[in-house]
Each structure stands twice: as structure tokens, then as C-alpha cells.
Design brief:
By secondary structure, this protein is mostly helical. 84% of the residues lie in helices and 0% in strands. The chain has five helices and no strands. It has helices spanning 5-28, 35-52, 56-79, 81-84, 87-112. Helix 1 runs antiparallel to helix 2 (35-52) and helix 3 (56-79) packs antiparallel against helix 5. The protein is globular. The N and C termini lie close together (6 Å).
């Protein structure tokens, strides 16, 4: 892959978005690196590696985690309707939408520059 201006911008946006997610998770955990935030960090590093390599596994893992989050969010909406009406679920769906768009667009833009 050639490191053009678009490629560097796409990778920077992807890393900044995922860094924001990790920092937010650590803040929610009382500024401590827990197993969940460590797993999120490891996931980000692996996904960034797959993105840079333009591996089809990047898309497979993105789709798998998206499906997992849709099922999880759907279960909360169905089985915990009192939680579904809160701001938490609105933020959850917004996060999921932004995450999917950034991930897929990153892959498409990087692969179109090859």
C-alpha cells in the first residue's frame, strides 16, 4: 500500500475514533485499565493491523462484531424495555452506526488506493 495523503488521513481517522472509544471506556472504569478496556485495546490493534494489510478478515470481523452488537442491543430493547427508553441505548445505536461506517469506509477507501 502506498502511503498517500488519503491513506494517512483514513488511518488517522480510524485510530482517532478507536482511541476515543478506548479512552471513554477507561474513564467509565474509573481511570483504570480493566480486562474489558485491555481487550478493546487489543481488538483495536489487531483491527488496525488487518486494515493496513487490507485483509478480508477486517471486513469479516467488522461484520461479526456488528451482528453481535445488533443482537445484544436488540435483546436489551426486547427484554429490558425500561432501559430501551434511556439515553444509553440512543448512544449505543449511534456508536454502532458510526463505528460501522468508519470501519467499512476506511477499508473501501484504502483498498481503492491500491
Amino acid at each position: 500500500m502506498v502511503l498517500s495523503g488519503i491513506n494517512i488521513t483514513v488511518m488517522t481517522i480510524y485510530i482517532c475514533w478507536n482511541s476515543h472509544i478506548i479512552v471513554d471506556r477507561i474513564k467509565k472504569d474509573g481511570n483504570k485499565l480493566t480486562k474489558i478496556s485491555a481487550a478493546e485495546l487489543l481488538y483495536t490493534l489487531i483491527m488496525f493491523y488487518l486494515l493496513v494489510k487490507l485483509s478480508p478478515w477486517f471486513i469479516f470481523v467488522t461484520l461479526a462484531t456488528t451482528i453481535f452488537h445488533i443482537v445484544l442491543g436488540g435483546a436489551i430493547e426486547v427484554f429490558k424495555p425500561q432501559m430501551a427508553a434511556t439515553d444509553i441505548m440512543d448512544k449505543f445505536w449511534a456508536y454502532l452506526g458510526i463505528d460501522v461506517v468508519i470501519s467499512i469506509l476506511s477499508f473501501v477507501l484504502l483498498s481503492s488506493e491500491v
